Amino acid sequence: MAGPTGGLSEPTSAGMDRVNLGFIIAIVAVATIGGLLFGYDSGAVNGTQAGLQAAFNLDATGLGFTVGSLLIGCAVGAFFAGRLADLVGRRTVMIMAAVLFLIGALIQGFTDVHALFVAARFAGGMAVGAASVLSPLYISEVAPANIRGRMSTVQQVMIITGLTAAFLVNYFLAQSAGSSLGEIAGASAWRWMYLAQAVPAAVFLGALFLIPESPRYLVMRGKDEAARTVLNKLFDADAADRKLGEIKASFDKGHKPSFADVMSKKTLFRPIVWAGIMLATFQQFVGINIIFYYGETLWRLAGVSEEVALERNILSGAVSIAAVLVALAVIDKVGRKPLLLIGSTGMAVTLAAMTWAFSGASADAAGNLALSDTAGLTALVAANLYVIFFNFSWGPVMWVMLGEMFPNQMRGSALAVAGLAQWGANYLVVQSFPALADGIGLAGTYALYTASAVISIFLVRSFIQETKGKELEDMQG
Hints:
Elements: E1 8-9, E2 19-20, H1 21-31, H2 33-44, H3 49-56, H4 60-88, H5 90-110, H6 114-142, H7 145-177, E3 183-184, E4 187-188, H8 189-195, H9 198-208, H10 215-220, H11 224-234, H12 237-250, E5 263-264, E6 268-269, H13 271-285, H14 288-293, H15 295-301, H16 306-334, H17 336-359, E7 362-363, E8 369-370, H18 373-392, H19 394-404, H20 411-439, H21 441-463
Helix pairs in contact: 1-6, 1-7, 2-6, 2-7, 2-9, 4-5, 4-6, 4-20, 5-6, 5-8, 5-9, 6-7, 6-19, 6-20, 7-8, 7-16, 7-19, 11-12, 13-19, 13-20, 13-21, 15-16, 16-18, 17-18, 17-19, 17-21, 18-19, 20-21
């Protein structure tokens, strides 16, 4: 993808450099298709549980494993993608992820063999995990410091757009077929919900061949002239030369980046890596993906029909996009840490309200969970406010910070560790939800998420350092 020749604009924080904003936006748009697929693959399962149970004769444990197998793949994909990105390049690994997205979608849609479905879901998960760490990594390495937060936040916009697209597609497919178990063109609607993922996967695969490799990766591999060529497309010539020198100086000339860079003899990992692990895990411990993965099941537990449950999923997706757009507008002005603190506080309050709403639930004659009118309204309002607070703060900010907070020398390896932690926590939360809901009830489950939100306030205050406006070469490990 050749950069526009006349679009240099927007001075950087140094007050002198000019950036080719049109080119940067174009390559960020391509990189964040990975985020779209991340969201779509994560949300596609929402509304297909009945089909999975019917097709593969699954009990609650089997359903939890089938849903969660994607997340096991995500953890593996995130870990190995971070390391592979240092060995073969950021763009190359994203291309590999796009191939897995495409193959996984097709197999999940067509296979009648449960083991093959789980294997394809695992492969798709590897792609999701890879995209989750590589898109923000790539964006942080091509975007100037003064707009890096905004550019990286586009990743979360695309994740939520993908989730919402999955909800919309699932809703209309279920409507067309009468339910997720109905048929369209000879195939069950729930199968089309998976097959639809193949379209954006194919677009992602083709578009990746049009963007350049990260200049910081090229410097890491000793390809200085190739890096200079990319930097000249991003900045004016003087800035490109200066930045090339700064990037080269940030690497240890006698030591190529390796996994040992993130390790510490006393504390296993360096403090900055532990801070990344904290961000990655507590983004999940607040329970956000229960809304996204089990939203349809959750609302049906609350006594509403499949159609109404899917409609509420769409509403959650819409308010999520709006919240991320607000975050995008302010993240480079307000900073990362203040948004995290606002989000933690808001999530603690709204999760507490959901805990209260479900604490008074009763079962009807058929054994279905029923809420009073007041509790039902409280749960709906609190759930959407919770989603707003998350997507205004922890949703985008965690990915922004993971992409930028680590020094060049260790960025790939640190992201591998943080990505593994993030998806491991995601799997733990999602896998445990059905058992927790059955054992301690929805009120008890949401009380655990409330406690995590409260704890996150103190962790952010104590361990997170602001990264707003800092050059990647100035990050300390």
